[in-house]
Amino acid sequence: MDSVYDTVGAAFKGFVDSLRGAVIIFYLDESINEQKRSPARHEVGRRVADNAIYRADKKLPPKKEKKILKRTLQCCGLNGGVFWLSILLFDWGLLPLIKYLILMVLGQNSNLGLTVSSIVESSLSFIFSTMWVLPLLLLSKVVNGLWFQDIADSVYRHSRGRPTNLSSVGKLIADAMFNVLIQFLFLIQTMIISYFPVSPFGYIFYLIHTCMLFALYSFEYKMYNMGWELHKRLNFIEANWPYFIGFGLPLSVLTSLTSSYIISGCIFSILFPFFIISANEAEPLVNPSSSQLQLFSPVIALSNALFHQTMRPLVDQKKRT
């Protein structure tokens, strides 16, 4: 009974911690500015201190920045105000208007009107997806990645200091490549498990997978800046799975409200900066359960096998030369 209580308590704490970013973000920039105004107290270094003295001598007001809030609003503007809104206007505004005009000209009940409107809608949808949605999707992926990293680094430096990099460039590249492969295979595993034939277990299993994945996304910036390699990050999340399921639950539920991958991605990109901040400020509840939920283990084993099969010929060739 105590184990069940600890598990539920850890999941609830993770859920509450995940929502903190929505509050912290409104005073985080001011806290960072206050830290810059007090360099001696926060030990930020001689160069910053000299700059503060120079400003005092010149009677210049300290420069205030709203970097984190600005980046978050940019994410909301790009993904919600531009991307999502354009899709809604096209699907709910332009297409119905064109269909109405065609049927008004050719007749509401005429087969010709229905056929023409169907062809026009299909053609416009293809052009819109090819010329607008796909390029904007690729652009948003790149821009969002840069903005997410900027937010994570700024928050980490404020609360924890200078990031700890991996020991070598080779480890950094291998970690990044292996991480991409793990996440790709885990997404496939998540989609497969969602087709579990017994309802509602398919959705429950899918939800647990996405909770763990979104928690990994959120905490990965912090753990990476702490110098944790991928295997350590995954082991920590699997060992403390109740907390991380609770942490990823809000984002998982909100992104699953629509069946559209594009709209789900927009919702994720709008909300994700808040979860990055929440993860950076959170202190996960460790060892709430005696068992380890090894959801990442199958894809880790598969990734290791793929890497060995790929790298072995290169190693053998290098030995021969």
UniProtKB/TrEMBL annotation:
The keyword Membrane applies. It holds the Pfam family EI24. It is found in: Membrane. Coiled coil: none annotated. GO terms for cellular component: endoplasmic reticulum; membrane. It is a multi-pass membrane protein. The keyword Membrane applies. InterPro entries: CysZ/EI24 (IPR059112). This is Etoposide-induced protein 2.4 homolog.
